[in-house]
Automatic annotation (TrEMBL):
Gene that this polypeptide is encoded by: dnaG
Name under which the protein is recorded: DNA primase
UniProt family annotation: Belongs to the DnaG primase family.
Task performed by this protein: RNA polymerase that catalyzes the synthesis of short RNA molecules used as primers for DNA polymerase during DNA replication.
Keyword terms, alphabetized: DNA replication, DNA-binding, DNA-directed RNA polymerase, Magnesium, Metal-binding, Nucleotidyltransferase, Primosome, Transcription, Transferase, Zinc, Zinc-finger
Organism of derivation: Commensalibacter nepenthis
PANTHER family to which the protein is assigned, alphabetical: DNA PRIMASE
Amino acid sequence: MAFDQRFLEELRQRIPLHSIISRKVKVTRSGRHWKACCPFHGEKTPSFYIYDDHFHCYGCGVHGDVISFVMQSEGRTFNEAITELASLAGIEVPEQTPQQKQRQEQRHNLYELMAVAHEYYLSEFQTNRAQIAREYLLNRGIAKQTIHHFGLCWSGDGRGGLIQHLKAKNYPLEMIGEAGLLRRQADGQWGGELFFNRVMYPICDRRGRVIAFGGRIVGEGQPKYLNSPETPLFAKRRVLFGLNNLTSVFSRKEIDPLFNTILVVEGYMDVIALYQAGFHGAVAPLGTALTQDQLALLWRASPQPVLSFDGDGAGRRAMLHAAEEALPILTPEQTLNFITFPDGEDPDSFIQNKGVEAFLEIIRHRQSLSDMLYNLSVEAMTNRSPEQRAALRQRLTSVAEQIKDKNLAREYRKVLLDRFYEQFYSKNKPSNHQSAYEKKQNHQFNTQLVRPALQKDQVEYQRMCILIALLIYCPKIISRVEDALCRLNLPEELSILREVLLDFPLDCDDIHSYLKERNVIDLTKKIVRHSNLILLNQNNFDIINDFGQFEKRWWHFYGWLNIHELENQVTQAQQDWINCPDEEHQRTLIARLNALDAVKRGEIDT
């Protein structure tokens, strides 16, 4: 019985391979993967390695996936293995319709056809007519052994040799066209060969089966590169050139682990040059920007693949596009890193000009996704004006909002805004260079509120507590005072609570539960008590909806702490009201003006 490939793929993904193998032998962790003593030959030192989607024994050479393991270890037929695994996975074995069986047979025949086509192109590569192709590859520094590994070949002159060869093998013209090897004519009929006078790069699936070709023209002509069209075997959005090489990357234990880095580069020659230099984890998208399907393939091989780009404007745009694709599907377990090359350089040319050690050094200094996003966002600023800073802050917030994992989105927002305020507003940078978020992670709450060792005096510290207490009682004003709040140089305990309040959801009506969930409820109560701002039941912190007076009082205490910044906030509010003279902007301006006047008159709000 033939099964649909989508069902088989789902079956492989549903069942962790190591859990099936552990029924036969003891398995142990080995980095991201697993290892065991081979169940198929006696050994005392483990050489049987288990990856996400396959196993391989480096002692006896046995290799396969979860289905073949059940077949080989338990003597089951293919159908019996499928039935057993489907039961374990809790999915039903699908009943195949005649149409499904026909499609499955078609795919099987197309795989065979592509293998025969590749054999033809390989034979053409050995002829005198392919001298130009061999010279091109050798002049690019590609060794014969590398040419053989990637199966590089020559298309021939496109005058029907491939068609005749395939027809002689009983493949009809319609199937040759469906495999993506022929041109489609204006009338819908199949025409001549798609590839001619081109160096051919076989494109393989994860199992190493040829599913498409890429061709580079030698000499004059356009397009320079040409890929197979979409076929039943080939969807360029879900394939990466060099993907089949990743199965053996993590088995190389004797070399620097950086050589096993999963690298995403731009084109065929970059992948080939890196492989030849010892970097077997290089892959490339096929003429398209990186897609979410391709990211999923990368994350199956590594939780932190490294994307490489040129250092020019086009490279920066490509980095941003890759980040935009990744952010919605980012998780705490899978992210991206980035490396860039000097203008005019790509991985192929860089290794030839600078050498392998220089390339390793670039990998060592790779950027995290958050660093890349922040740096590119800052580079987009044309000046340091208030308008540009506000726009930057909005961009950084928007980046975090694209992440669907709420916890991860919250952490990204913290990290990005920490860097923003540290760069543009920090007056006293900590000597240990820790961000406020890093301090929070390392801080252990004590049962007693610790006074800051460097506080100016008790009055100033109490006013800081009052500012925080007002926000706790009336969190609706947080968004209205957020910019000024972030500019305050607060002691550590108050800084921690400030960050928690900045994350308070606007549509939430239960701040007590929120503070309890964030494990700061005891700290909150102590700060509120220290403020002497006893307005409501401290155990509930009921939200106050009438926030006009609270906003005024907040700005008043803020002015006593930093009158110059309050003056700046008044100026900003005046400009905002001029640009948008609505009731909300007017209310904000009046609250700040009243507070500034009160401070200048020496009034003390209590």
